[in-house]
Structure formats: structure tokens, C-alpha cells
Amino acid sequence: MEPLVDRVIAAPEQYDIPEAGTPAETDRGPFHAPPPAAPLDSAYIWLYWGILMSELDLVQLAENPDPRAPCLLLLDTSASMSGEPIRALNEGLTLFKQDVMGDALARRRVEVAVVGFGNGGVRTVQNFITVEQWDPQELRAGGSTPLGQALKVGLTLLRERKDMYKRAGLQYYRPWLLLITDGEPTDSWEDSARAAQDEDFRRGLLFFVVGVERANMEKIGRIAPAERPPLKLKGLRFGELFLWLSQSQQAVSHSRVGDQLALPPIGWAEVDT
Hints:
Shape: globular
CATH superfamily of the largest domain: von Willebrand factor, type A domain
Strand order of the largest sheet: 5-4-3-6-7-8-9
């Protein structure tokens, strides 16, 4: 089947695309179709399609008026994660989904987004969606570690999602940002890390950093917030890590927005004594 954008360009009347030169009313104000002389190109189609998807998001949010608990996973999928690490990471994601699904309230309130960085560059694997709608995709390892760009993309996704909640009139819990990495970025990461730390300090999110086996913990310590030092994963205990994350998100979803919570014990990390 030909790509969607090509089908829309070939037959825009089937997709409710406005005629050239006419405005389309959206919650962001009028969107003007290109003038009659302008070609109906793919950039225009994607812009209009993005507006339609934004409207669809608002409809879906309105169908479930529960407060949301957004959880963003920034996952290192670079070549250093090849083999057993990426397999264990994928199994951990599946376990996270299964465990949250056992809680009728959490599966409606917890929203997950996944950003992978490594194989294929920085990729939004899954934008925010409730756990009950989420189908974890298999991640593949390869390439470098553009951690700085991944943080930038992740912070943008969080900001856009919080804006969407506000437009929909929904309450939301303090978002979680969980970064799992080997701590060897191959791009400029300092500004993005500082932005995440600042957002954490302003209580705009909770920023957790986990280093995998052979991680550069000295560098990871400069990425994580000073008041929440990074943790090093014991071996390949991704399953235990994601069960802890599931239990934490379930506790959040059963609380009132703004409550102080004690997190479950952390048994999956190494602790210096």
C-alpha cells in the first residue's frame, strides 16, 4: 500500500482537507490552506494532519477524565546495548505493561512515552498513551549515543503533553522522566541535562537516571539531579527495575494530585557503602 501522505495528496477530498485558500478552524485558530497557485505538497499535508491528530488527542483525553500520570522512558539503544542487554530491556518493558495492567485504576491513569536513542538516532518509539492502549515495540540496538538530543526531544514531548492536559481540562501528577544509559554520550549533552535538572528543581518533573552495566557513573552523576544521584543497575535486572517502576506508578495513580509518597524499596540497584 502506498504511504498515507501520498494517498492524501492524490485524493485530499477523502480526508477533509480544506480547499486551497480557505481557512480551517481549530482550537489553535484558523489554519489557512495554501493559495490556489501553491501545490498541495507533503509538508502541507503533514502540517494539517498534525492538527487533526491534535484534535483527536483531545477527544481521546475527554473520553477518560481521570487525572494522568505521565511517565517518559528515555532508553539507550546504542551498540553497547547489543545482545543480552537489549533483550533484557525489551522483556522489562513487557513486564512493566503486564504489571500495570493488573491495576484497573493505574492502567487508565498511567501514560507512557518511549524515546530510544542509538539505533536510528533519536526516535520517538511511542508518544504518550495510556498503558491499556500501549503495545510495547521491540527495540533494537546499534549506532552511537545521542543522549543530549534525546533529552531535548523528551522534554519537548513532556511540555507538549502537559499543555494538552491543560487544554483538555485534566489534572495530572508530576511527570516522571526515567533515563537508562551507559553514560557515554556521543553528542553535546550538558545544556539538555541542565534543562532537565532545572525542570526537576522547579517540580515540573521527577528525573531519575539509571546506569547499566559498565556505565560511566562519573559522567552519569553530572547528568542526574544533585538531590537524586544516579543508580547503577545490578547486572541485567531490568525486570526488577520495571516492576519497581510499575509499583511506583500504581502508588502515584492511587494518590491525590500533589500528595507526598514513599516509593517502594529499590532492590535492583547497587549501593555504595
